[in-house]
Amino acid sequence: MRAYGWRARIGHIYPAVVAESFMYEFYRIVPPGVTLAQTNLIIQSLNERQGLEASIKMIDQAAEYLAKRKVDIITIGGSPMFRLMGVGSDKVIIDRLENRFGIPVTTNQTGAVEAFKTLGVKKIAVAAPYFDYQNEQVKKFLEGSGFEVVHIHGLSREVEAIHELPLEASYHHARKVFFEAPHAQAVYIPCAHFAVPWLQELEDDLRVPVVSSTAALIWHSFKILKIRARIGGHGSLLASLSEGKET
Fold it and tell me: Looking at residue 71, what DSSP letter applies?
């Protein structure tokens, strides 16, 4: 509804059947006048390749639904889908959808990569909620994008179990991972299921940028739409939007 989204209407393709944490965190961060128009795919398990592959095939149809609602940008969650397809797959899908619908498109994986480039960091510690083999996919994607993953550790949780983690879990997990990697220049917390309500507090403690999946997606969407919002209390990446620097 344009009345509420007078500043921007963010279309989002959420990979899982059920969404909860992402929507709450989105509205905690964005300023008034920005709304979320969301459609969901069918991922129920991170361990079922069939569900990931089926969801990949649904992306174009989901994007069409959002385009018909005349959103300002189409964003795609589900980094495991892009990691399954490999480095560069996000850009292939972005180009295809932009050419088809004439609307800007990005993904949370794309946003994270662009965020680290903008922040000027190369050495990243990753605090993930995933199983080991999924962590290897995260590492492969980041290193294929030009970064060095100096440490990565997961919590071995499935989709539903990630939602059940206490809110402080991401804070303590990220601190532990960072202090095990003294050369890290930034911390990455992937997965929109994994709530990160104390991102600013993490940066205050660690003295390095901390980038969550949701923060990266919002930042990149606003950057593309040239929205110079003043977003404080959610980390240096989002705070940089109001500086209006072109990168």
Answer: -
pTM for the whole structure = 0.92
> For residue 107, how far is the Cα from the chain centroid?
7
- CA distances in angstroms from 164 to 43, 135, 154, 158, 190, listed in the order given: 17, 20, 15, 10, 16
Whether residue 105 contacts residue 63, with contact meaning beta carbons closer than 8 Å, is answered with yes
Where are the strands (E) in 122-198, listed by range? 123-127, 148-153, 186-189
Residue boundaries of the structural domains of the chain: 8-107, 111-213
Can you tell me which residue has the tokens 């990446």? 237
**Structural fold of domain 8-107:** Rossmann fold (3.40.50)
pLDDT at 98: 97
Q: Are 77 and 192 in contact (CB under 8 A)?
A: yes
Tell me the C-alpha distance between 25 and 2, whole Å: 21
Which ranges of 72-158 does DSSP label H, i.e. alpha helix? Answer: 79-85, 89-101, 108-119, 132-144
- What is the spatial distance between Cα 8 and Cα 194, in angstroms, rounded to a whole number? 25
Q: What contacts 221, CB < 8 A, 6 or more positions away?
A: 8, 10, 73, 75, 106, 111
Burial class (CB within 10 angstroms; exposed 0-12, middle 13-18, buried 19+) of 84: middle
* Residue range 30-73, pLDDT digits in tens: 999 999 999 887 655 555 566 666 777 788 899 999 999 999 99
Calpha distance 120→185 (Å, rounded): 9
Architecture of domain 111-213: 3-Layer(aba) Sandwich (3.40)
Residue type, 71: V
